[in-house]
Design goal:
The protein is elongated, with a radius of gyration of 24 Å. Strand 2 and strand 3 form a beta hairpin. The two termini are about 35 Å apart. The chain is about 60% helix and about 5% strand. It has 2 domains: about 5-95, Arc Repressor Mutant, subunit A (Orthogonal Bundle); about 110-235, Four Helix Bundle (Hemerythrin (Met), subunit A) (Up-down Bundle). It has a 3-stranded antiparallel beta sheet with strand order 1-3-2. It is mainly alpha-helical.
Length: about 240
Amino acid sequence: MNLNQYINIVNLSEKTELEKVRLLAFFCYMSEKANSFILDDILGILKEIGHPISNVSRLKGYLSKSKDFKKNNDEYMLTPSARQKLESEFGCLFNNTEDVVSSSEILDESLFLGKRGYLDKLIQQLNCCYSNNCYDACAVLMRRVFEILLILAFEKKGVQNEIKDADGDYFMLDKIVSNALNNKALNISRSRKDYDLIRNLGNFAAHKIHYNTRKSDIDHLKQKYRVCLEELYYIAGLIV
């Protein structure tokens, strides 16, 4: 759980100044095991994320009156009751080992999720990898989702045997792409260049020994990637 993910989940932008401090203090407690905090540190975080506090004196007044905080010299801490309440509401975000926290970083989850359970998990992992700076992992997952969608498109049109070998196994992605772009049953509108960019990014991340994917590599491609996948979703019958 990183700070950006936490901010989105708790809807920090919709909160009052006092609630923002409470929620950030809880984040520091859960992620850094910080039992107390210096107000200037929290104010610095709020400024960095675009929520600066204009009247610090007023905020200090709110803190002194709040039953959720105690002050010891220059440091504040959440009271046990306040911490317990926050743990019951948000503690699972820091302890869950199954759910993937993602927020449409590469693919719009409101559009692409809810069609196939296994695709949902991969897309959420893909988005999560990007937000956590795991760009090689993100690129490999982008390639995997792309390959799956191509196969689903062939299956939907009933021409999957055209991309299988004599043993019934699917060809490598290069051959699948070549067939897809020339297959009248699929009627794909995208260019060979777009498909090769997606395929190569994943190949480089997975197989090139001295290569590391950078954020700029993915940023350069992610709009084309979304458009290509959206078309494949329609062809595969996942969007009607």
